DNA sequence: TTAGGGTTAG
């Protein structure tokens, strides 16, 4: 019988999805047969099954193929994909020429499918042209199109634009929320991401697994262990703990929040660990000074047939560097280029260096001592008391890290003001004996404070570089510092 | 019927 339009489209879609399955016996020819048997076809017939996520993941169809087909249907869009000319004027001119009927066929579906390609290639100029078109033809209220736009802008580091799109979307579903929250978190706007997450909870939105894997990195980066634990409980109640995205993000969160053993326990329980899971664990071990574990994990990962990417290589090279393992480091460096074909990047970026320097000079460098803490004087007394005991135990101050141009006595005084030792003194005086004190610092601990902490106690300090487990006058970083 | 969101970094 003649294949009816929507039935035919549905069949094509089915064959396309079957084709994307591993070792599928279905192929292009099955789709073709249905397509050829249809007396009436539309744009949908051409695209059925082609733009689905399953197909993209399986790479059954490349981004370029999608674009080529898209341009076949809408030749006016060609300029948007392969040249610098503006799409907007072309759209208008082809509508004027009476070609508007074809554009009317361009339903929102294609735009929500095409935008992720610009997100992937980080091409905000082309993404914006599509956005203009979306507005002109009133597709912007569609949740699919809007979440594609949110994602495109945030992948291009334009979070403000993402949030703007989110705010003007009249109806929001879980994917709209996840898109904007993930956008904030991926662009290091962790507080904003958490605020939106809480607002989503207040709005009684039912969370999905993606909601958790999107927000968890915020807890990891902010070292907010309590919040991370609450989310972990939530995850267990939802039964999402077998999701590899979520378990990898939990490994990372617990490692960054100081619980390396819990991180390892979660990692060991992951079924179907992928490269990201391994890399998160490798970095976690390194963060805690267990470089040898990082190396054995890396080797084990390779044995399991998982090919490391540039992030995994960065992780293992960092581990070698922290443990002063020069031979291993060189071996991995050679493997990186020879076996894995990874080239060096970043490096010698003068433009970036200039931007950073400009920012640094905008900061008031003289303004470092903040004395506003209500127990400022008590903390001073506690530090003085600790110092006396430390000096009896053999502590000698090291003022080499004090950059100010003052005499040695002044420098010694400046060291008293360092936030890490003040935090420890405050922790000791305000908690019962035996309480775990967690100190989180946003810059690297100073070398003298590092010595001081070794004298004070069995203590764990996390600075911007790593965890320092101080015990019996030794530190887990092996004084690599 | 076709379409949108997620984990790892020096």
From TrEMBL:
Please list the residue ranges covered by the PPR repeats.
173-207, 274-308
The record, for Gene3D superfamilies, names: Tetratricopeptide repeat domain
| GO biological process terms on file | RNA modification
The segment(s) forming the DYW domain are: 394-481
**Which keywords does UniProt give here?**
Repeat
Write one Gene Ontology MF term. RNA binding
Query: What family is this protein classified in?
Result: Belongs to the PPR family. PCMP-H subfamily.
Query: NCBIfam families attached here?
Result: PPR
Q: Which named protein is this?
A: DYW domain-containing protein
Q: Which organism is it from?
A: Linum tenue
